[in-house]
Amino acid sequence: MLEMHFANMLEEVIGDKGLSLVEIEGIRDKTAIAHSQIHERKWEELAFIDLVNQDTADIKTIAGYVLESSDLFLLLGIGGSAMGPRAILEALQPMHNFRNKPKIFIYDNIDPQTLEAIIEIIDPHKAAVNVVSKSGNTAETVASFMIFWAYFKKVLGNESAKKFIITTNPEGGILRQIVKEQGLLSLPIHPSIVGRYSVLSPAGLLLPEIAGINSDDLLLGAKDILTKCSNAELWENPAYLFSTLLYLMCTKEKRTVNVMMPYADGLKSMSEWFCQLWAESLGKLGLGITPYPAVGTTDQHSQLQLWMEGPEDKVVIFIRIIDYGSDVRIPKVFEKTEGFNLLSGLCLNDLISAAAKSTELALTNASKPNITITIPVLDAYHVGQLFMFFELCTTFMGFLFGVNPFNQPWIEAGKNNIFGLLGKPGFQKQKEDIQRMAKDNICWKL
Q: Which residues of the chain have pLDDT under 70?
């Protein structure tokens, strides 16, 4: 089970830069209100909680079809639709494409160079394409879909329809319309589930099933941590306590940057997933906390100096793994050379653990607040726990700030500006605003 170690956030450990029990107890009314918002299900977007009980039969059936028919699987999506599946794949099947089939590619941008490279290596006869967009009108995803649809149609003719799986709103939207018109395979995204909270929905679970990861294990981990984090008592609920400590560090100590630093290459993409979740959910009304992705031990050598002697605006969040599931012993070579002899015979597990503890100790001794999430092993069960834990933390934190943790008005504004620039009817104002900005902009030409 996931554990949280928070002593290094308290004044008893790091002195006057830490939080007092009085400060924590002082916002009991606020935490009680936040709990009631979740417990009483006052927001329909809390539907992500119910995903732990979903039936995965259709996901597994479609995954089986892809495995039988395809050597390559391509996911088209952006934001949570791509970052969540990538986080699962890299955590649980590192180097997948070098060891297994089908090869898996995630195309989440509209960089034409990347797209052309994918087209060069993809054989439509042996490929499957999963298009993921709840709204169905995300310009980047729709554009990619149109390009690959035309390419597959050119090569395969009417058989191309068998190669596409659409994951979208079951009730409406232009992608649902295409599914009906073309008779395409499809999976639903519940209309109330926001994209960045969708990793444990069919939007995030089809890819891991294709990669040989059991989605039921992810959901079981999520379900167990949900049970653990349903307690109204602050000190017995790790998600509530995590959010409360970071909220107070932000509002009382002006620590407005949260560094997410897992000590595992496989969790680097989860760190990036967390950053979208934290930023897009909380950054509203002049409030929020800036998330920053890091990975240990790499960023001990690139960022630690800033954390130690830079602005006093950060809290570092570590994720540590007790058992990596494999280990490599450093051979006893060059033993007569100082420096080499210290490492000879050690295991990499020992070395990365020592590195994590040394960074935590350095920060703590310098009165820099930090908090550690520990999981016993990096497997599907505990990855599922991490996803649900951080989704609950984000929701609770939003309610502490008094913002809606589920909307994203300026993301929608960006989409509307794209529509305006492209001349979509109904978005004339956006087009005029962009033209005005371009006219008034100052440009230096060298």
A: 410-424, 426-446
